[in-house]
């Protein structure tokens, strides 16, 4: 268990349970807590560990042992499998470099089968498409053609016959030994774990899904689901969310708009990271974007900021500073503001490459849903035109789609948003 940190609606766990039954073998769920993870600070570990503690309790209720190994996963997991004389290993799927590195190194050491199950996507990433897709327009029909096969109800996870004898995980000592950067503290507006995720989904479907199609672009409207941190840590299943939304009585246009984001945009991001090895760098953006940004690389930058100035919301623009404060304080920027936030980093950085790195650094450090394919792809879309098309040419941006505060003011009450994130 790595990416999909939940017991129910988890295809990787259901498959492992099935194999245990077929092989008449016990089943142990293992999470390897790496010494560090892409620089994630305390905010993320707090959210994740709280969720894992629920996983531990849920599994115990099914007589399934949960083990948390602290060490480099590439050493801890093979050693554990050997000690337990495991017959096979099942893991969940992620397209990120770190996850692939771990799995390749582990596969090389194992002498038993290793199965990888995509428990994160509705249509498994490698079935939606076997190549890098150009845009939502090209991947949408491929996903829709397969949705029927995959948008199915989940079977229940059967308990094991005997409760495990092993002792409980020492959660207190794990938190004490954790040395995650406390300068990015846990958030308090969003509770972690599968129960909080289910409550968040229910209140979204009941109170916010109607009107989502239009309201989702207004950061003052509190119209979005706030499910992304739960999805990032796998504390809720996208497939489960999709079925709940489809069953709801919200207007068709709102359900469609939400499912387009949850299924098509999210799986497009997965595709980008799965088939573009430079997904987290400027190198990965399309040639047309590289050419147009290079052509404008010597354009005069009216404003220039360093990553520290961006981080401290110390730019000349109150709207951008407010978005950065939202990120730092709440661990999330509203979807519409996120595009504007990244595009201004492009406009006010020395080079587009530097802008790309600054956006990733800030997003991964502060965003609870960061270190995620959606983030790398969202930044590549904003700064590098990935999955977008060329727009009217202008200074600095070239043909990359432009956004500014006036455009925002046409969409929503900018002063209200700025006032909300004053300090
Ligand atoms: P809702 O509008 O309620 O959407 C529900 C779900 O649909 C989201 O949780 C997400 O899984 C999916 N979704 C929505 N919009 C997108 C999108 N544009 N691309 C892919 N999936 C989408 N998303 C992250 O999960 N982590 C990130 O680090 C992240 N960084 C981003 C950076 C930039 C510059 C941009 C432009 C977008 C980024 N996104 C990221 C995508 C999107 O902004 C967030 O997924 C969304 O705002 C999450 O909030 P929500 O769950 O309340 O959204
Ligand atoms: N997954 C793990 O298997 N071990 C970890 O130690 C771990 C830490 C972690 C910290 C922050 C964060 O955002 C995610 C983290 N993950 C960890 C889960 C992670 O989402 C996935 O395993 C990878 O991102 C692959 O997608």
Q: Kindly name the structural category.
A: mainly alpha
What hetero molecules are in the model? flavin-adenine dinucleotide, ligand FO1
By CATH, the superfamily of the largest domain comes out as DNA Cyclobutane Dipyrimidine Photolyase, subunit A, domain 3
What number of structural domains do the residues give?
Answer: 3
The average pLDDT score comes to: 97
Radius of gyration: 22 Å
What report would you give on this structure?
Helices cover 52% and strands 5% of the residues. The protein is built from 20 helices and 4 strands. The mean pLDDT is 97. It has 423 residues and is mainly alpha-helical. It has 3 domains: 1-120, Rossmann fold, CATH 3.40.50; 122-152 and 194-275, Serine Threonine Protein Phosphatase 5, Tetratricopeptide repeat; 278-420, DNA Cyclobutane Dipyrimidine Photolyase, subunit A, domain 3, CATH 1.10.579. β3 (89-92), α4 (97-109) and β4 form a beta-alpha-beta unit. Bound molecules: flavin-adenine dinucleotide (FAD) and ligand FO1. The site of flavin-adenine dinucleotide has 28 residues, from α10, α12, α16 and α18. Ligand FO1 is lined by residues 2-3, 32-34, 37, 40, 44, 48, 94, 96, 99, 371.
């Amino acid at each position: 268990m790595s990416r999909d940190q939940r017991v129910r609606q988890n295809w990787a766990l259901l498959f492992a349970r099935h194999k245990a039954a077929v092989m008449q073998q016990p089943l142990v769920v293992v999470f390897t807590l790496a010494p560090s993870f892409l620089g994630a600070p305390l905010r993320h570990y707090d959210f994740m560990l709280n969720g894992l503690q629920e996983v531990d309790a849920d599994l115990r209720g099914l007589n399934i042992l949960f083990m948390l190994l602290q060490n480099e996963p590439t050493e801890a997991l093979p050693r554990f499998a050997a000690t337990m004389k495991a017959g096979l290993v099942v893991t969940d799927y992620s397209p990120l470099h770190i996850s692939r590195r771990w799995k390749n190194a582990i596969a090389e050491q194992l002498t038993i089968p290793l199965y990888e199950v995509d428990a994160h996507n509705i249509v498994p990433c490698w079935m939606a498409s076997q190549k890098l897709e150009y845009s939502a327009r090209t991947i949408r029909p491929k996903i829709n053609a397969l949705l029927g096969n995959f948008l199915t109800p989940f079977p229940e996870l059967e308990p094991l016959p005997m409760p495990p004898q092993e002792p409980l995980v020492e959660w207190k000592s794990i938190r004490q030994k954790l040395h995650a950067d406390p300068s990015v503290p846990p958030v308090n507006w969003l509770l972690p774990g599968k129960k909080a995720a289910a409550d968040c989904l229910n209140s979204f479907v009941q109170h916010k899904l109607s009107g989502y199609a239009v309201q989702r672009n207004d950061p003052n409207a509190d119209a979005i689901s706030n499910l992304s941190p739960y999805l990032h840590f796998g504390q809720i299943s996208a497939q489960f969310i999709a079925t709940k939304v489809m069953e709801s009585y919200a207007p068709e246009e709102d359900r469609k708009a939400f499912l387009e984001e949850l299924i098509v945009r999210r799986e497009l991001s997965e595709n980008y990271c799965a088939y573009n090895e430079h997904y987290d760098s400027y190198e990965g953006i399309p040639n047309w974007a590289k050419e147009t940004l290079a052509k404008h690389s010597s354009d005069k930058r009216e404003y220039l900021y360093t990553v520290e100035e961006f981080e401290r919301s110390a730019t000349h623009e109150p709207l951008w500073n407010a978005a950065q404060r939202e990120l730092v304080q709440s661990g999330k920027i509203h979807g519409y503001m996120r595009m504007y936030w990244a595009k201004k980093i492009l406009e006010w950085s020395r080079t587009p490459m530097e802008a790309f790195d600054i956006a990733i650094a800030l997003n991964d450090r502060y965003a609870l849903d960061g270190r995620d394919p959606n983030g790398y792809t969202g930044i590549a879309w904003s700064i590098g035109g990935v999955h977008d098309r060329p727009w009217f040419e202008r200074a600095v941006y070239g043909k990359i789609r432009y956004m500014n505060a006036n455009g925002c003011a046409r969409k929503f009450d900018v002063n209200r948003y700025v006032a909300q994130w004053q300090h």
